[in-house]
Amino acid sequence: MRRSHDYLQVARLYRQAVEHDLPVAQTVAIRLGVTEGTARQLIRRARVMGLLGPGVGGRKGETP
What we know:
Blueprint: H1 4-19, H2 24-32, H3 36-48
Protein backbone atom coordinates (compact mmCIF):
# COMPACT_ATOMS: atom_id res chain seq x y z
CA MET A 1 0.00 0.00 0.00
CA ARG A 2 2.62 2.53 -1.08
CA ARG A 3 1.22 3.93 -4.34
CA SER A 4 -0.55 7.28 -4.15
CA HIS A 5 -3.74 5.95 -5.73
CA ASP A 6 -3.95 3.54 -2.79
CA TYR A 7 -3.89 6.53 -0.46
CA LEU A 8 -6.68 8.09 -2.48
CA GLN A 9 -8.68 4.96 -1.71
CA VAL A 10 -7.81 5.31 2.00
CA ALA A 11 -9.09 8.91 1.93
CA ARG A 12 -12.27 7.87 0.12
CA LEU A 13 -12.95 5.04 2.59
CA TYR A 14 -12.24 7.38 5.51
CA ARG A 15 -14.75 9.94 4.28
CA GLN A 16 -17.38 7.27 3.63
CA ALA A 17 -16.95 5.96 7.19
CA VAL A 18 -17.32 9.48 8.62
CA GLU A 19 -20.39 10.14 6.47
CA HIS A 20 -22.05 6.94 7.72
CA ASP A 21 -20.88 7.43 11.34
CA LEU A 22 -18.78 4.25 11.29
CA PRO A 23 -15.50 3.66 13.12
CA VAL A 24 -12.96 4.89 10.56
CA ALA A 25 -9.92 2.76 11.36
CA GLN A 26 -12.02 -0.40 11.59
CA THR A 27 -13.83 0.40 8.34
CA VAL A 28 -10.61 1.13 6.44
CA ALA A 29 -9.00 -1.99 7.91
CA ILE A 30 -11.85 -4.29 6.90
CA ARG A 31 -12.18 -2.85 3.39
CA LEU A 32 -8.42 -3.06 2.73
CA GLY A 33 -7.78 -6.33 4.55
CA VAL A 34 -5.23 -4.85 6.96
CA THR A 35 -5.04 -4.49 10.74
CA GLU A 36 -6.53 -1.46 12.47
CA GLY A 37 -3.02 -0.32 13.38
CA THR A 38 -2.02 -0.39 9.73
CA ALA A 39 -5.23 1.41 8.80
CA ARG A 40 -4.37 4.18 11.28
CA GLN A 41 -0.91 4.51 9.74
CA LEU A 42 -2.41 4.72 6.26
CA ILE A 43 -4.88 7.37 7.40
CA ARG A 44 -2.06 9.36 9.02
CA ARG A 45 0.01 9.11 5.82
CA ALA A 46 -2.98 10.23 3.72
CA ARG A 47 -3.18 13.31 5.98
CA VAL A 48 0.55 14.02 5.55
CA MET A 49 0.13 13.72 1.78
CA GLY A 50 -2.66 16.29 1.92
CA LEU A 51 -5.36 13.85 0.84
CA LEU A 52 -7.23 14.37 4.11
CA GLY A 53 -7.49 17.57 6.10
CA PRO A 54 -6.20 17.87 9.66
CA GLY A 55 -8.11 15.89 12.25
CA VAL A 56 -10.72 17.41 14.52
CA GLY A 57 -9.31 17.26 18.06
CA GLY A 58 -8.74 13.51 18.20
CA ARG A 59 -12.16 12.72 16.76
CA LYS A 60 -13.00 11.36 13.36
CA GLY A 61 -13.42 13.89 10.61
CA GLU A 62 -11.28 16.59 9.11
CA THR A 63 -11.11 20.36 9.22
CA PRO A 64 -11.74 22.14 5.93
